[in-house]
Amino acid sequence: MNDEVVQKENVPKFYVSWEHLEYLVAKVALQIDSKKYTGIYGLPRGGLIPAVMISHQTGIPYAESITEKTLIVDDIIDSGNTLEKYKEYDKVTLISRHMQESKVIATGMIEKSNIWFVFPWEK
To answer: Edge-to-edge, what's the strand order for the sheet holding 91-97?
Structure first.
């Protein structure tokens, strides 16, 4: 996960399956106005796979760089430290994990939870 957050031992983990990931991506893709963006950029590392998947579902090309018409994608938002650098852009995350108040709110997100998420590419 991109956010610099230390996992607490007593926080339950949820292992996201590829099937659940596909569900989350499909729900996010339905929220996106494909005419509004010229590209989708995935934040390294956690946002890369969801960004490519969203790109395929929406038909918006994957972008190698960011412009004002680029949608920023990350897997999860926690503290908001990672996405704070991109606050002037539209951004989506698959999950919002708010153990505390985030510095940034993503313009689109699907699930909110306080559990620790482990994505398929992190195993």
So the answer is: 39-42, 70-77, 91-97, 111-113
CB 29 within 8 A of CB 57: yes
Closest CA to 99 of 6, 20, 14: 6
Residue ranges of domains in the chain, CATH in brackets? 13-122 (3.40.50.2020)
Strands 111-113, 91-97: pairing is parallel
Q: Give tens-digit pLDDT for 66-114.
A: 999 999 999 988 777 888 889 899 988 888 776 555 545 555 555 566 6
Q: Whole-model pTM?
A: 0.80
Q: Does residue 70 contact residue 39 with C-beta atoms inside 8 Å?
A: yes
